[in-house]
């Protein structure tokens, strides 16, 4: 659906002598129906990249392919037509304060001289969709932040786009309103089949509605993948830092580490040994009694130290940190058995 190929955006440095890269050789592929997250710290190049999709930013180098067509090669008229397929919503809503809710939503239709009755036929169902029918005649100043963003969403949808770009659309909203807005975007993605590209600096937003994500840092993509994989196994330091609290919940508190180290060094009877393990469960494996089966099959004992379960994209995932005791042979068989049930098994040797 959207192919960003080798996108580079250069600017002159403030002294005018050097070159600064807001994006450098970025390649991103977005599939139809994706809710695609672009995440990174401030200044990472997220807005620059997303604004290349509708050529609000014309990249210094690279191709922007939307639905098989290269936007960078189009004439101005072709580009204007193509941009109608790409709606956009913004952190600060960008509504016209002198126009009512209805007139804000109608604006893109007015700009292409749509007759009044056709405009009404389009605008009223959109107001219904975003839950603003009874506010149609109000002005933006009479609305809450969440309602203003709903106007922004309805306006973006008025030209029947195939793609919706969202630049930090929930950053100015409180947590409850953020939830409601994300749910609305999810509904639009599902019911209208819209592909959504979302910039955010909050992993929580990605976790709640995106199916794929790229992580950017200093103008380059440092990680890309299905959201569940990136959360389960973040590779880059930037991603790990951004996941912050979610990963902290997987780590043993310092005082416990000292106790566990001591415990692991204790002698066990009958050639049994202790192992500090982390199991990561996804989907069905979160509900199957994999661990208790392994322990009864292979005569192991276990002691749970830390556990966490979460939900991403309607799929559960969780981690358990535990000490397992058994003979080396039984332990190895149990690990193979657990892994064969789709659970990732790691021995946390770095703690010892
Ligand atoms: N027109 C411009 N001229 C010079 N530098 C620019 C221009 N636009 C953006 N930049 C710089 O490019 C870098 C990337 O900016 P961009 O807005 O894409 O980052 P971002 O990840 O969206 O950040 P934020 O989350 O703060 O919006 C920043 O260092 C910014 O200052």
From TrEMBL:
<dbReference type="InterPro" id="IPR041701">
    <property type="entry name" value="MetN_ABC"/>
</dbReference>
<dbReference type="InterPro" id="IPR003439">
    <property type="entry name" value="ABC_transporter-like_ATP-bd"/>
</dbReference>
<keyword id="KW-1278">Translocase</keyword>
<dbReference type="InterPro" id="IPR050086">
    <property type="entry name" value="MetN_ABC_transporter-like"/>
</dbReference>
<dbReference type="Pfam" id="PF00005">
    <property type="entry name" value="ABC_tran"/>
</dbReference>
<dbReference type="GO" id="GO:0006865">
    <property type="term" value="P:amino acid transport"/>
</dbReference>
<keyword id="KW-1003">Cell membrane</keyword>
<keyword id="KW-0067">ATP-binding</keyword>
<feature type="domain" description="ABC transporter">
    <location>
        <begin position="2"/>
        <end position="243"/>
    </location>
</feature>
<dbReference type="InterPro" id="IPR027417">
    <property type="entry name" value="P-loop_NTPase"/>
</dbReference>
<keyword id="KW-0472">Membrane</keyword>
<dbReference type="GO" id="GO:0005886">
    <property type="term" value="C:plasma membrane"/>
</dbReference>
<protein>
    <recommendedName>
        <fullName>Cell division ATP-binding protein FtsE</fullName>
    </recommendedName>
</protein>
<dbReference type="GO" id="GO:0005524">
    <property type="term" value="F:ATP binding"/>
</dbReference>
<keyword id="KW-0547">Nucleotide-binding</keyword>
<comment type="similarity">
    <text>Belongs to the ABC transporter superfamily.</text>
</comment>
<dbReference type="InterPro" id="IPR017871">
    <property type="entry name" value="ABC_transporter-like_CS"/>
</dbReference>
<dbReference type="InterPro" id="IPR003593">
    <property type="entry name" value="AAA+_ATPase"/>
</dbReference>
<keyword id="KW-0813">Transport</keyword>
<dbReference type="InterPro" id="IPR018449">
    <property type="entry name" value="NIL_domain"/>
</dbReference>
<dbReference type="GO" id="GO:0016887">
    <property type="term" value="F:ATP hydrolysis activity"/>
</dbReference>
<comment type="function">
    <text>Part of the ABC transporter FtsEX involved in cellular division. Important for assembly or stability of the septal ring.</text>
</comment>
<keyword id="KW-0029">Amino-acid transport</keyword>
<dbReference type="Pfam" id="PF09383">
    <property type="entry name" value="NIL"/>
</dbReference>
<dbReference type="InterPro" id="IPR045865">
    <property type="entry name" value="ACT-like_dom_sf"/>
</dbReference>
């Amino acid at each position: 659906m959207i192919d960003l190929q080798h996108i580079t955006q250069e600017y002159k440095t403030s002294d005018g002598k050097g070159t600064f890269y807001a994006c450098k050789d970025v390649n991103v592929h977005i599939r139809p129906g994706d809710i695609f997250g672009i995440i990174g710290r401030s200044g990472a190049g997220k807005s620059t990249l997303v604004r290349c999709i509708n050529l609000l930013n014309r990249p210094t180098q690279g191709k922007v392919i939307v639905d098989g067509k290269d936007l960078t090669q189009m004439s101005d008229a072709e580009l204007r037509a193509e941009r109608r397929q790409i709606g956009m919503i913004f952190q600060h809503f960008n509504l016209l304060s002198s126009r009512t809710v209805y007139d804000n939503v109608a604006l893109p239709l007015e700009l292409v001289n749509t007759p009044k009755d056709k405009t009404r036929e389009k605008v009223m169902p959109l107001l219904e969709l975003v839950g603003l029918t009874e506010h149609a005649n109000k002005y933006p100043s009479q609305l809450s932040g969440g309602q203003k963003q709903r106007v922004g969403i309805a306006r973006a949808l008025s030209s029947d786009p195939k793609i919706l770009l969202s630049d930090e659309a929930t950053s100015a909203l409180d947590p409850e309103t953020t939830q409601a807005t994300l749910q609305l975007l999810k509904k639009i993605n599902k019911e209208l089949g819209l592909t959504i590209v979302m910039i955010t600096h909050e992993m929580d937003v990605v976790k709640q509605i995106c199916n794929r994500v790229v992580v950017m840092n200093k103008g380059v993509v440092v990680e890309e993948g299905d959201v569940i994989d990136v959360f389960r196994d973040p590779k880059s330091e930037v991603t790990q830092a951004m996941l912050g609290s979610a990963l902290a919940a997987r780590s043993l508190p310092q005082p416990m580490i000292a106790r566990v180290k001591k415990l692991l060094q204790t002698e066990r009877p009958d050639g049994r040994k202790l192992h500090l393990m982390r199991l990561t469960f996804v989907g069905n494996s979160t509900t199957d009694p994999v661990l208790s089966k392994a322990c009864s099959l292979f005569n192991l004992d276990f002691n749970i130290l830390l556990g966490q379960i979460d939900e991403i994209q309607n799929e559960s995932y969780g981690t358990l940190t535990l000490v397992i005791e058994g003979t080396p042979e039984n332990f190895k068989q149990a690990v193979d058995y657990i892994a064969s049930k789709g659970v990732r098994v790691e021995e946390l040797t770095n703690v010892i």
